[in-house]
Design a protein that fits this description.
The protein is an all-alpha fold. It contains 17 helices and no strands.
Length: about 450
């Protein structure tokens, strides 16, 4: 007689979802504000600033699969994931504050401080994020329960992005900008990080771990294992290409509002327009998912993002109002681009388990989160290189006069470049198929 898996309670749904407020805050704010903080507050050259933003998160490419492997093997009364989540949730908030608490001069020392502190913060974030993403595949075997968990998580993710993305620039402005404003912002974000991450540790304390997982252990074997899964390979490739475009656009928000719109205060409004629609249109995308399928929904939302982003190249023709309207259109697409891959990843993990007979959630999510982090980190780095090549002038007061070429680079970096990245992902994602898993009694052809 087959045992019935215990039903996941509402407390676990809410507790698990709380973690996405923390992941949203760290996934959004550095990409939104850190490059601008380096170039226009600390006066660090744009090319070097891009490297400072990129390098610490590139470290996660090696770190995250290792964390996934180690958490797969962790045993104890807390389960395999929660000890790692607790360590990350305790370490990340103070480390995030340290990123913005360093010296303001000389530029070399300021850049080194930010790079080291951000590296430590990215390490702490990986300790939480990788096991957190792996949890749903272990908490329940029921696809319906898993879908419910993910719907709560996506809602919390949208809320977290809105709170952090719109709130962080507002806090900077409220505290007078500059180093003091960014330090106050870091404290605000640290509170979001602590509340979300530690809330998830506490909220999943009663969640079951139905089956122990196995791991390949070595990084090379881990990468080879995940790459053999065609659905995972296709989904991950398309997702990372999109993350590059999103990373460029997020980093470009303060530059576009100041240099193109001529309205520095519009940055908070633009970001609210980007992430605000997620809360309203998520039910619409869920309906599209049920009627047309997740792949179709992802392609449709990506096409909408592409169209809106491309139009932003002339978004200033109608002033801030037109730019905000176009960013709202982008935000509707962005909501689907966030939701659908998160809903598709557990399907891929479950399909691998059914085919292999082994639980390897940590392996897949370790590679996934590493690639996602890299994509979002490369985006600001690319924008930094683009601005540097165009002659963007950094200054500690943010009041330097920019050349026409530098302003054009800002314009393209916020519009055409993100649109091209997401457009390039469409042929890749169109190839996504989750083939039916053969029954265990069937012989699978070699």
């Amino acid at each position: 007689m087959t045992a019935v898996a215990p039903r996941v309670g509402r407390g676990t749904h809410l507790g698990y979802a709380a973690g996405s407020i923390g992941t949203a805050a760290f996934g959004t704010v550095p990409g939104l504000l850190l490059l601008y903080y380096l170039t226009d507050v600390l006066g660090i050259a744009a090319g070097l600033a891009g490297l400072v933003v990129f390098a610490p998160k590139a470290w996660d490419v090696l770190l995250n699969p290792w964390i996934g492997s180690r958490s797969d093997r962790t045993t104890g009364r807390w389960g395999p994931r929660r000890p790692w989540m607790l360590a990350g949730g305790l370490a990340l908030p103070p480390l995030f504050v340290l990123v913005f608490a360093g010296p303001g001069a000389p530029p070399a020392l300021a850049a080194t401080w930010v790079a080291v502190a951000f590296l430590l913060a990215a390490t702490a974030y990986g300790c939480f994020q990788v096991p957190y993403v792996a949890q749903p595949a272990e908490i329940t075997d029921d696809p319906g329960e898993r879908a419910t968990l993910m719907s709560w998580r996506v809602a919390a993710l949208a809320l977290g992005i809105l709170l952090a993305g719109a709130g962080a620039p507002a806090v900077v402005d409220a505290f007078g900008g500059g180093r003091g404003g960014h330090l106050a912002m870091a404290v605000f974000v640290a509170l979001l990080l602590a509340g979300g991450m530690l809330g998830a540790v506490a909220g999943t304390r009663n969640a079951p771990t139905l089956t122990r997982v196995t791991s390949e252990g070595r990084l090379g074997a881990t990468l080879a294992l995940t790459w053999r899964s065609r659905p995972f390979r296709v989904l991950l490739t398309g997702f990372v290409v999109q993350a590059l475009g999103i990373g460029v656009m997020l980093a470009g928000v303060p530059y576009y509002s100041e240099q193109v719109l001529g309205d520095p205060a519009a940055g908070s409004l633009l970001f609210a327009a980007l992430v605000g629609p997620a809360i309203l249109v998520m039910p619409l995308w869920l309906r599209v998912s049920r009627r047309l399928g997740k792949r179709t929904g992802l392609l449709a939302s990506s096409a909408l993002f592409t169209a809106g982003a491309a139009a932003l190249v002339v978004g200033d023709a109608g002033g801030t109002g037109l730019a905000v309207a176009l960013v709202v259109l982008v935000g509707v697409g962005y909501a689907g681009m966030q939701m659908f891959p998160l809903a598709m990843l557990p399907d891929v993990v479950a399909a691998d388990e059914a085919a292999s007979g082994q639980r390897r959630a940590g392996v897949f999510t370790g590679v996934w989160t590493a690639a996602e982090t890299l994509g979002l980190a490369v985006g600001p780095g690319l924008l930094g290189l683009l601005l540097g090549a165009a002659g963007y002038v950094s200054s500690s007061g943010g009041d330097a006069v920019q050349s026409g070429g530098a302003v054009l680079a800002v314009r393209l970096g916020f519009s055409v470049v993100p649109a091209l990245f997401v457009l390039a992902s469409l042929p890749v994602l169109a190839r996504y198929r989750l083939d039916p898993v053969p029954a265990p009694t069937q012989e699978v052809p070699a």
